[in-house]
Design a protein that fits this description.
This protein is α/β, with parallel strands linked by helices. Helices cover about 30% and strands about 15% of the residues. The protein has helices at about 40-45, 70-85, 95-115, 140-150, 160-180, 205-210, 235-250; strands at about 10-15, 20-25, 50-55, 90-95, 120-125, 195-200, 220-225. A seven-stranded mixed sheet has the order 1-3-2-4-5-6-7, sandwiched between helices. α2 (about 70-85) crosses α3. The protein is globular, with a radius of gyration of 17 Å.
């Protein structure tokens, strides 16, 4: 079962983060969990502290219903990040559905605190205002399982365990409903730089769709394309880590982001979780 810091269901850490100059908040893909980012936390420690969001409906939150609306999910996450934002600069990294959750959470955090994240890494996801007619959440279980096989981000052995597959399907279905019913106007923006990262063979995002993130930021924008599919970031983990380090090298000195405030209680504790699914 995933560990918790003083009952903090939403925000998890895997390494001490009290001495980090900037903290990177990571948002999982559809069906994903906070533990997906455990390797990233280990690689970035100690200079960049990784905080991972745990959505309802998975791992130790399996008994909770999933959130079927992206903006509602962001409204629940953002207040949990307010104390972390007060303690020092935050950057956001979201993969697939998580990129859109990160985008909306950045906007909500800005509304609550006046402090946007210093950087948004949007991985494996087309821009918020781009539209595809996707209705997977309305189809049967086999269609969702087929999608998992197509995207190749799930251990193949899991498909041999029918009980385990049935256990994760409710979270997947609610996540797909949230992202497939999401819409965004082209002029909605975040007040921070955006770096879009995609695989060149990703069936769920083209370079043009990723490039459209440019219109959703008031700051600088860049796009990087890697060899690979939807989960390109797994084989290219070292390169992704290098990109994050380079982009956040000066983030701790961003004006308006103090780094001497107390961390949320328990923020420096190490938390252990289940292995990545």
């Amino acid at each position: 079962m995933a560990g918790q810091v003083d009952g903090a269901l939403w925000v998890r850490s895997f390494q001490p983060v009290d001495r980090a100059g900037v903290r990177l908040v990571c948002f999982p893909h559809a069906g994903g969990s906070a533990s997906f980012f455990h390797p990233m936390a280990r690689s970035l420690h100690p200079h960049i502290g990784v905080l991972a969001v745990q959505y309802p409906g998975r791992q130790d939150r399996r008994s909770e219903p999933g959130v079927r609306d992206i903006r509602e999910l962001a409204r629940r996450i953002a207040p949990e990040l307010v104390p972390w934002s007060a303690a020092g600069p935050l950057a956001f990294f979201g993969h697939s559905m998580g990129a859109v959750v990160a985008f909306e959470t950045a906007r909500e955090l800005r509304r609550l605190t006046g402090r946007p994240p210093v950087m948004l890494f949007a991985s494996g996801r087309r821009a918020p205002s781009t539209v595809r007619d996707e209705r997977l959440h309305q189809h049967g279980d086999e269609a969702i399982i087929g999608e998992l096989r197509l995207l190749n981000g799930t251990d193949a052995a899991i498909f041999q365990d029918e009980e385990l597959v049935r256990m994760v399907l409710p979270a997947l279905r609610s996540d797909y409903e949230a992202i497939e019913t999401y819409s965004c106007a082209p002029d909605v923006t975040v007040d921070c730089p955006v770096l879009a990262l995609i695989g060149d063979r990703d069936p769920r995002v083209t370079a043009d769709e990723a490039r459209a993130w440019r219109r959703h930021t008031t700051g600088p924008f860049d796009l990087e394309v890697f060899d690979g599919g939807h989960f390109y970031l797994v084989p290219h983990a070292a390169r992704i880590i290098d990109r994050i380090r380079a982009r956040l090298a000066t983030a701790a000195a961003v004006p308006g982001h103090r780094t001497d405030r107390p961390l949320p209680e328990g923020g420096g504790d190490r938390v252990t979780t289940e292995g990545r699914r």
